[in-house]
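Fold these two proteins, one after the other.
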Amino acid sequence: MSENYDVVVIGGGPAGYHAAIRAAQLGLKTACIDAGQGKDGKPALGGTCLRVGCIPSKALLDSSRQFWNLGHIFDQHGISTKDASIDVPTMIGRKDKIVTQFTGGIAQLFKANKVTPYYGFGTLHKGNVVKVRQHDGSEVELKGTNVILAAGSESIELPFAKFDGETIVDNVGALDFQSTPKRLGVIGAGVIGLELGSVWNRLGSEVVVLEAVDSFLAAADAEVSKVAAREFKKQGLDIRVGAKVSKAEVRDGAEGKEVHVTYTGKKGEETLVFDKLLVAVGRKAASKGLLSDDCGVKLDDRGRIEVDEHCHTGVDGVWAVGDCVRGPMLAHKGFEEGIAVAELIAGLPGHVNLDTIPWVIYTEPELAWVGKTEQQLKDEGIPYKSGSFPFAANGRAVAMAEPAGFVKVLAHAETDRVLGMHLVGANVSELVHEGVLTMEFKGSADDLARICHAHPSLAEVIHDAAMAVDKRAIHKAN
């Protein structure tokens, strides 16, 4: 016999747990099904983001940055150290504690908001029936007036580089190395490849990043990509674009297992040898096993669930949000979709503006952007004007010994409405939200230019870049 709910959510990651909590806040009887488990084998809510993605990677990025600064920046402040070292297992242990804190925090939020959790794999059947295969092998059946599919995504595996969890790994394995690999290969120069490559590079690994595309960070503004590539090179990251990998073989080496990677680049076919290989070529919707043949929900050619602009699947009462639908695979995009759908179910207005979703890469320097790039505006024939300002001319950035990078503001040539903001530099993951807010309220570059910014602050660079749009920046030659 089925247990009846107003809302059944499949997936306890960012999109799913936001949807479940908001639905419960709105007085709807809500259940959330999640298959995630922690290192101890116990249920762990939070999806990829909290368990093996956003949160643990930022913990390692912060630890590795502290160590890097110790050897590369502290001397500028007059701070000297001798024979500094890092205990990698302690660093990993700190990361694991943070993960446990946040996954446990969601369990407490579920309890406080009266969301009923089910731990196992959920499959949607006809009539909004969800069958849950629980971790103990038992099965329960739930019936939802509404069902929200929030299954998330999973790493794409290359046919010639299968994950073994030891030598060839995805993001999960690269977050758990117990020692710094002497030689680390990374396939893919996207967010995961650059962030985790940076972590182990800072700790002393010789990192080579192989990117099949001929240009570096093609999705970002061209100037941002250029500055980022220059800074990464200074740090010792060896990034090779136009490098198409065709083979990865694990062999016995003098010091244990090693992986021989063959790729074709500018010099023809070459082979590199690594102690570890991180495959970070992207992610795909985790839709396998989610839908029965008779449920009526359709998938597109990339395995994503088809939805309309309101995240509805076309099947009465069935919705889908997060990484398993169209749009960027970003946790914060999933947050907003989950909340929007819960509010739509409750009869309230709910909407997500995909044009103002911020993007961030948490390397050093950080990269962030929102809206259109210059190339996109050119391709779409939109008249625009731009203003930029360097962190090297900002007092706070120089005082922090973080002068690399700049901020660029793009505005419509006729209306002055902000169309995009592109940033590379210290703490731009925080600064980009000025662009998000301005665009959401359809603000202009002049609006930004006339808002008082505290001095000295990194945010002043946004102020100066906005002033530069109309060639009236004070701290640079226009």
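Now the second one:
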Amino acid sequence: MRARERHAAVGLATLLTTAGALHFAVPRCFDAIVPGWVPGSPRSWTLVSGAVELGVAAAVAVPRTRRLGGLAAAGLFAAVFPANVQMAIDWRHRSPRERAIAYGRLPLQVPLVLWALRVRRDAL
């Protein structure tokens, strides 16, 4: 694997590890964006999604499981999109800076999915 491809995989694993750890470190932030139509408690979804992010990070980090991890990361980024939509709806009356953060997360999912699929494609 070339250095560029390895760097992309390590970067993706790092992003997922950080996001997953944050679900446990500051769960209230994530609880708040769980859509109300999702069954169960927001905290349960926060903890489950954090654990999934950590598991996907591990799969991306290990060369033997990187192809599967890249695909799982792409699916995960798509699956959390409703939470980003919920955040944008909930934050529509906040300050311009906070609205920019919330709205900026929406199109960010596209390059994240593409990054994950590139990691999958480049894995040996």
